[in-house]
Amino acid sequence: MDFNDTPEEALFRNKAAQWLADNQLTDADTQGLSRLQIAKLWQKRKYDAGWACIGWDRAFGGRGASAIERVIWGQEEDRYNVPSRFFVIGQGMIGPTIMAWSTPELCERFLPTLASGEEVWCQLFSEPAGGSDLAALRTKAEPDGEDWILNGQKVWTSGAHYADFGLIVTRTDTRVPKHRGLTVFMVDMHAPGVDIKPIKQLNGDSDFNEVYFNDVRVPDSFRLGDVGQGWQVSLTTLMNERLAIGGGGGGADVTLALDIASTVDIDGRPAIEDSAVRAKIANYHVLEAGLKYNGYRALSALSRGELPGPENSIGKLVGAPKLQSIASFCMDLLEEHGPLWDDEQPLFNGVAQGSYMGAPGLRIAGGTDEIMTNIIAERVLELPQDPRADKGMPFSDIPTG
Amino acid sequence: MDFNDTPEEALFRNKAAQWLADNQLTDADTQGLSRLQIAKLWQKRKYDAGWACIGWDRAFGGRGASAIERVIWGQEEDRYNVPSRFFVIGQGMIGPTIMAWSTPELCERFLPTLASGEEVWCQLFSEPAGGSDLAALRTKAEPDGEDWILNGQKVWTSGAHYADFGLIVTRTDTRVPKHRGLTVFMVDMHAPGVDIKPIKQLNGDSDFNEVYFNDVRVPDSFRLGDVGQGWQVSLTTLMNERLAIGGGGGGADVTLALDIASTVDIDGRPAIEDSAVRAKIANYHVLEAGLKYNGYRALSALSRGELPGPENSIGKLVGAPKLQSIASFCMDLLEEHGPLWDDEQPLFNGVAQGSYMGAPGLRIAGGTDEIMTNIIAERVLELPQDPRADKGMPFSDIPTG
Amino acid sequence: MNFEFSEEQLMLREQARGFLQQHCPPATTRAVLDGEQTYDDTLWQRVADMGWMATTIPEQYGGLGLSHYELAIIAEELGRAVAPLPFSSSVYLATEAIILYGTEDQKARWLPSLATGDTIATFALAERPGQTSESSIQTRYREGTLHGQKQPVADGQIAQLVITVAKSIDDEVQLCACELHQDTVSQQPLRTLDFSRGHSAIDFTGAQAERLSGTAVTWASVERLLDRAAVLTAWEQLGLAEVALEQACDYAKQRYAFGRPIGSFQAIKHKLAGMYVKNTLARSNAYFGVWALASDSEQLPLAAATARVAAIQASLTASQENIQTHGGVGFTWEYDCQFYYRRAKLLSLNLGSERHWQNRLVAHLQHQTSAA
Amino acid sequence: MNFEFSEEQLMLREQARGFLQQHCPPATTRAVLDGEQTYDDTLWQRVADMGWMATTIPEQYGGLGLSHYELAIIAEELGRAVAPLPFSSSVYLATEAIILYGTEDQKARWLPSLATGDTIATFALAERPGQTSESSIQTRYREGTLHGQKQPVADGQIAQLVITVAKSIDDEVQLCACELHQDTVSQQPLRTLDFSRGHSAIDFTGAQAERLSGTAVTWASVERLLDRAAVLTAWEQLGLAEVALEQACDYAKQRYAFGRPIGSFQAIKHKLAGMYVKNTLARSNAYFGVWALASDSEQLPLAAATARVAAIQASLTASQENIQTHGGVGFTWEYDCQFYYRRAKLLSLNLGSERHWQNRLVAHLQHQTSAA
After folding, report:
1. Are residues D309 and D330 in the same domain?
2. Domain A247-380 carries which CATH code?
3. What ipTM does this complex have?
4. What is the CATH number for D280?
5. Would strands C161-167 and C121-124 be described as parallel, antiparallel, or unpaired?
6. Cβ within 8 Å, pair D3-A293
7. Chain B residues in contact with C270 (beta carbon < 8 A)
8. Is the domain of C101 the same as that of C165?
């Protein structure tokens, strides 16, 4: 066990740090560009130098780096303020799915442009009728010659409004139990019949969309896996989602809480000297440090060749409620000033307030706290499943309220 | 709304207080007697003066008092150190069941001796195979002429070793769904074939027993309700249990926590000045005060003629985990001295330690935390039941692992 | 002993609930959230016509002379409706301050128009981030004028009058009444996470003001005022918590997943039962709180702190877990869950945080214990 | 970077687990709980034969000279077995103290027999109820003798040697080694809620003692010793927490209610998942703790406090909810759930409470932040 770099790792870290220092984006580079354009510019620069998707095979634009090297790269890149969220879904989740389920030709067609950031992807899984119950989805795909015709509605689709392609799960058979009638396709988001409507969230942002499909035509060659094999294909994506989402992700944290508690007073003394404040900060640190070292341990497992397992659900399960709680706590430290959330008058930059308003979404998107807990109970602790009212039932017969 | 006595109530309180002052047990009275003997002596003294089971009809030995008067009496009696737990089950739960389901003759036979403490009762419901799933019980009752023959085993029976009679739920039909094949009897605990074995708990006490029935004969006249109506009869007992158990019941509480925190130091200052300590004590007070006023509100509802409903489950649901938590907290205040639990060297009389060791039982006996939560969810909030694997299934076909 | 509201009081509740269902449906709150206004002035007029601002104002000043039981009932209903109104500022704080500490003249001058709602008043306490205490107050009252900055002040921009906590030159605490429409008063709007209630920073640069001086004012007077407002706010928080629980239960009964209502899953049903438990404890503590308030009991400080802490805990939990129960739709702008989430956090910090009131609670427990 | 034990270390774990399954089954703990002895001396001998007491003792003093990784692995297994042994007193505290602070002569005198287990040693810190701090230490060391009372001292009655925290006449902190078999030392047994471990009050009335004086000792030295012991204890707590979770899972899979395993009810399965989450966080923090200990990192104080707080929380929850999952049988004397419940609470207070370590944790966070 060693929490420090080996000599080889230190060498790699140096090399990465050097490249980053030499190639970081300048103000001149980004002048007048949107966040997305900046992200694409940076991604392309990395790609051209062999620093994009470094864990991927060189054939697909990567550099065949190890899991530890990926982490080192991530740590070094994090020192710079570079936008990355636009590619998380495509590179973190969909790329591996394409590799696992597609033909060499399609890999060559799609993976390099995914790695270079030239094409952005989104994931079209959730539907109004199927949130936690993902497999209850209803979007239909019907064969039509060499093509398929898609009709239906997806929801909670991040980045649909700037995505070029989407990975979509559809229902191709309603007469079999729900997990068995699904099929996955790659769909061109610019195709006729694709209609995208942003969803405004309670925090005022619009990170998600509704996506409507009206007679959208997809060639059969864009199918991933066999017809009816969509559930297994989706699981590849979801398994990688656990790694991609993780526990971190900015927002209110122990550092912010310490900062605020060192600034404001309680009874004429800095709040950080208050024992109740200290106890809470200590508990949050236990969660943050635990998740951090947990991530390191998962990485060691990956390095030994193990697959990312359901135990990785813990990152989001702990991280999202922690974000909500610590954000609330930071506001409490500010007392009556806590609710102030004004960009014009920044008080610790509104991070606590923004986190408090964003956290409810994090506790739901990508699997609710309850679903994550169930995954741990059933797939890690191997406790028996809930009785399944719809088990073995043809999809068309399942009660929907 | 008034948290003070009305003039009539004040009069009643005076009368009660006066009688208690005049008639309290003296050291001479109790010299050489066991706790049970003292309890019986006191109960008989109250009975003879019309102060036993004061809510019951005069015909059964009570005084027809109102719900509020019962509380006032309880408050006044609580000022004296009188043993009462021996009669809680009989008077609080079984008496009302007999009144509801029995003949006038049997009421006259059993209720006065129950009120006077001359006969003690126990409740024979739980079985090894049916804990939370009470209706899964297996003790058989088979007809034999005018009698029934009982065979089986009960468990977690409080006071079986000093009880004269017991209220027992038996299975009289295994071919119907589990709730429909039950029948309730009153059984003589001194009858041949009744065998009682104490259960040693983790705290070293033996409050409960296993009770074995081997061909125990019970006359049909001792049946309560019809054959097959045992579930409904049991519900009367359980409904009254919620009121009888309540949330209080001594042990570690905010008063103890305040006492310890005012005695021990943290960093050279009394622990009570520590903000983390204060926050915890405040939270416990919110629970204790909430339960107390909740009890008062339930009482007002009773006074208006409402029946004790499932919302009364909250007392035990909150009270038992609170006891465990505050006991643990009190030990924490004592730091390394916390685990000391020695009668020879009393440190706050070992109340915290005793409570910590007793609380696990309270969280389980009389309905686990989980069962209580389910009752609130299904019967107060009217949320749908869990899917019942055994619903409508003949008892004999239900999986038992 | 009787631990329930009277028949008349329960009728008032029913009436208030019906009124607000009609005149303050979710669309009303949403309109303020979406629009430029920081309150609904039509609703304010309607509520004034109902006489709610007049509830506890004595009859000789144009009030109804009712008790705090009635006011608590109204508070609960306003909480249920997440009403976009300056009610708490004007009624629980400013009006109460004048009734408690004003001179005969001051009462006669301000209470009648507060009773009709023609005057909106507010209360200015906090200055800088962190806990407000006697020593943190920097605003000065000298020779009839106010100097300093107060923020955040709820409803400052729609109020005509503000009761301000200040200190005299010799550091004595003062409650000063100050008309807001003066050149020596300037305001900056402040955005909060609940913009269905307006807030601002108020600068007093020598504004004309007068002391509430019907009775000697000290920091203890301010705390007494806050204790009283805390009870009424607890009822508002409780109303909010209960409606959040009701919404969550309704949704859990009707939304299906895996072929059955999500409310049949213990993960959801036990979450909802937990919310019920917190709400119930908060309600019972609020009962004791309002009794202590209405009967001017010595137990008010402890009762208020207990009601406040319980209400904060219940309302934050209920508003968070209502969203969680709704899943994806719960955190959309389109659904109403957000109203409770915003308002619950705002109310949990108006008047001071959970930690602050936990601390006060224990102080009064200690006081009670040492007195016994 | 590598966040896992080595193959050899994992083999040691397997070997230790097998050894304890054979020689310290639940019946062993039960026998001590039911009997008059406060430890199992046969097991102590067997463990000594395995060389566990010798783990980190340098080879020149008869030890194995292994790292704290190996000792943590043994600690975890002893925790799983709820072993009725004075291991923590003798190894994590007394032996460590001598290695850290003893003179060459002192090490040569005591370490060899501590390594073989022939000497059992313990550590005496606490005196009166409440938090132990530098100022609360009253025991005096003067002119080679000890004066004062220490309680509770774990394993005092079976130990031959005690390392005692005392103060010199000029109030300087001292660590004093004192043989217990002297007329000037008397002991009173103290019963705790975990009587599978013995405790006593020790009176020193002029007992012969000597200072550990290989290096200057201050209160910081005591804290450093406690930090190191806290990491090892966290591993013991973790072992206990994991076995409690395993038992609860096993029972939940096999016990039926309402026609299905209770582990299929979310009320139970989510409870167990919650225990798993706490255990997992405790484990990851314990990894960082043992790395900081083994590598003598500057981060040890923060790592130790974090591991300690996480381990306290995980082990208390696991031991409580294991009983709860078992229902009625869980709180009987006959079932083993009680072992974990008793030991978890004892370990949560040995070395100081959760609050104490939370406070230390934040002190080191502040230190780290201000250093950065």
Report:
1. yes
2. 1.20.140.10
3. 0.96
4. 1.20.140.10
5. parallel
6. yes
7. 370, 373-374, 377
8. no
Question: Is residue D1 included in any domain, yes or no?
Answer: no
In the predicted model, is pLDDT for residue B366 greater than 80?
yes
**Six token digits for residue B76:** 């006044």
How confident is the model over B171-218, as pLDDT tens digits? 999 999 999 999 999 999 999 999 999 999 999 999 899 999 999 999
Across the range B17-36, mean pLDDT stands at 94
Could you say which of A266, A279, A389 has the minimum Cβ distance to residue B387?
Answer: A389
Of C272, C359, C366, the CB nearest to B383: C272
Q: Which residue in chain B has the smallest CA separation from D320?
A: B360
Looking at the complex, report in whole angstroms how far the Cα of residue C157 sits from the nearest Cα belonging to chain B.
36
CB pair distance less than 8 Å for D249 and A311:
no
Q: Which of these CATH numbers, 3.20.20.80, 1.10.275.10, 1.10.540.10, 1.20.120.430, describes A8-120?
A: 1.10.540.10
Tell me whether residue A4 is exposed, middle or buried, using C-beta atoms within 10 angstroms of its C-beta: 0 to 12, 13 to 18, 19 or more. Answer: exposed
Q: Which of A76, A77, A127, A241 is catalytic?
A: A241
Any catalytic annotation for residue B241?
Answer: yes
- Residue C6 has a CB neighbour count (10 Å cut-off) of 12
Q: Are D47 and D117 in contact (CB under 8 A)?
A: yes
Note the pTM of the prediction, 2 decimals.
Answer: 0.95
Using CA atoms, how far residue A224 sits from A97, A146, A219, A395, D352, in Å, is: 9, 15, 11, 22, 58
Cα–Cα distance between A244 and C247 in angstroms, integer?
34
Q: pLDDT truncated to tens, each residue of chain A (401 aa)?
A: 888 889 999 999 999 999 999 999 999 999 999 999 999 999 999 999 999 999 999 999 999 999 889 989 988 998 888 877 889 899 999 999 999 999 999 999 999 999 999 999 999 999 988 778 888 999 999 999 999 999 999 999 999 999 999 999 999 999 999 999 999 999 999 999 999 999 999 999 998 999 999 999 999 999 999 999 999 999 988 888 766 554 445 789 999 999 999 999 998 899 999 999 999 999 999 999 999 999 889 888 888 888 778 888 899 999 999 999 999 999 999 999 999 997 665 667 789 999 999 999 999 988 999 999 999 999 999 999 988 878 888 888 888 87
Q: Report how far residue A228's alpha carbon sits from residue B128's, in angstroms, rounded to the nearest whole number.
A: 47
- Contact, D124 vs D164, CB < 8 A? yes
Residue D7 burial (C-beta neighbours within 10 Å; 0-12, 13-18, 19+): exposed
Q: C193 near A351, Cβ under 8 Å?
A: no
Q: Where in chain B is the domain with CATH 1.20.140.10?
A: 247-380
Dump the DSSP string for C59-121.
Answer: GGGTS----HHHHHHHHHHHHHTT--SSHIIIIIIIIHHHHHH--HHHHHHHHHHHHHTSS-E
Q: From chain D, pick out residues whose CB is under 8 angstroms from the CB of C270.
A: 266-267
Tokens for A199, please give them. Answer: 């969803």
Reported CATH class of domain A122-229: mainly beta
**Token digits for A246?**
């993780």
Tokens of C299: 């137990």
Instruction: Examine the domain organization and report whether C339 and C225 are in the same domain.
Output: yes
Instruction: Using CB atoms, pick whichever of C133, C194, C351 lies closest to residue A267.
Output: C133
**What is the arithmetic mean of pLDDT over C236-252?**
98
Lookup: tokens for C335 = 């659904």
Chain B residue at shortest CA distance from D349: B336
Which of these is catalytic: B76, B119, B127, B241?
B241
Q: Would you call C316 and A131 a contact, using CB atoms and an 8 Å cutoff?
A: no
Number of alpha carbons in the 13 Å side-chain half-sphere of residue D165: 27
Q: Which of D60, D89, D116 is the last residue in one of the domains?
A: D116
Note down the domain range covering D201. Answer: 121-211
Picking from B183, B120, B193, B129, the residue whose alpha carbon sits closest to that of residue B156 is B129
Could you tell me which chain C residue has the CA closest to the CA of D268? C266
Structure tokens at D68: 């704290």
